[in-house]
Amino acid sequence: MNNIFLRLRRGTGILLATLLVTSTFCRPADLPVIAPRVQLDAENAGPREIEEQTEKAIVRDYGAAWTALNQALERNQPEPLGDLWVGTAKQLFLDALQQQEQSGIRIRYLGQQHQLQAVFYSQEGSALELQDTAQVERQVLDGETVVNSESLTLHYLVVMTPTTDHWQVRIFQSVADF
Amino acid sequence: MNSKIGTYWQTIRRTGVRVACGALFASLPLLAADLTVPRQATANSAITIGTAGEGSGELYLIGPTARIKRNVRLGDSVQLKPEEIQAAGLYTVILRGGGGAAKSFWVAPAAPQAINFLAQPSRVAASTPDAISGTVFVMDRYHNLVLSAVPVKFELALQDAASERTVNAREGVAWARMDSGHHAGNAQFTASVDDSSVKRIIQQVAAEPCNVNFHAHPAPAGIVVETDLLRDCAGNAIPDGTIVTFTDIDAHGKSTVDAVVKRGIARAELPAAPAAVISAASGIVSGNELHWNGDAR
Questions:
Q1: pLDDT digit string (tens) for A111-154?
Q2: Nearest in space to B247 (alpha carbons), one of B225, B279, B276, B271
Q3: CA angle in degrees (0–180, nearest 5) for B36-B42-B46
Q4: Hey, are the CB atoms on A103 and B68 less than 8 Å from each other?
Q5: Which of A99, A104, A171 is opposite residue B66, by nearest beta carbon?
């Protein structure tokens, strides 16, 4: 008898957790925003070596920044960008969101995988430059109609700077190649 | 009768020809839609996108910030204003109608015109090798990172003394380490690219004292010890607030007193002892040693 209650409680718990996750990330018209996969190769960074803790923080915060960006692009709202995006990088997406609002056209990234290569870490630890090779499926939507869907390999140059407890994306630029 | 048959026959032939012609034209493809995009463009330059095909359609331009839609007659060109392609990066043109087409092109950054300059630290000891670090991100006027190997000049100047270093930016970033100058004071640390420059102030303070010489004399309650005017090896006065530690070893054991430098001099009072060895140190610098036996020797 106790076993049945235990199972029911577990089942209810899983259901509630699922509902919580779904309600957090989904609106009726939205697809769930799935966190991108991020990997970092910190071997070639210089002049300062990247500490293991910093490596983990970069992977965590760059992934969080993309999740926030995906939410902002999907919902056409700047709020999710928070302080994970700052400076010219944030302005870039604020401009994009404004254009999305005006035109009704928006983009959506699916199945993202980001392979980061650290290329510069300043001596005093105040700035980090990364090359991001991203595999994505990019959809272009006009209203709710997908007008184009492409699998792309995109290259980004990214500059991140630290705060007391996390890293922020400060410069973000798509480039043809590295 | 024959004429009626002839009329029917002619009608059938004409209809047959019409059906055959219709089928033939229907089987021929319409001129397929196509796009002509520039191979590469520069940020904030006007560009033209060519379309080919028959009929009309919708043209979409998707860029780092661009989300543009235009109705087009296939075969016409579409002009994009400079302000529509200010962000460097990948742009995709999508054509809907006439079979559809999509092509991409790259927009490169414009000429360098702005600098993001990180200088560290804000306060540094004078005459210290590689103590100052400068990092520059080279941008164009539209906030794009300039990726070419732009020469960046770093200059550290205080009074008549100046040192400089020129480094080529790599993927938008240039960095340099500089020795701090010999003189205490506010040094100007400048980074410049072409006509653009950004200044930061680095406060250079005296380094460790070059030596910690002191003397002692008796006082009513013990021994007064006092340093000479403390300076670093470049002659800069040691700043107020620096700690000098006096150590007294006598028959009762060891006692230490931390004294704060005021106007370049540290002063403390030690307990009286018939025979004592007194020494002084500040940071990593040790001073002279005095053998006290009622007076200093």
A1: 999 999 999 999 889 999 999 999 999 999 999 999 999 999 99
A2: B279
A3: 60
A4: yes
A5: A99
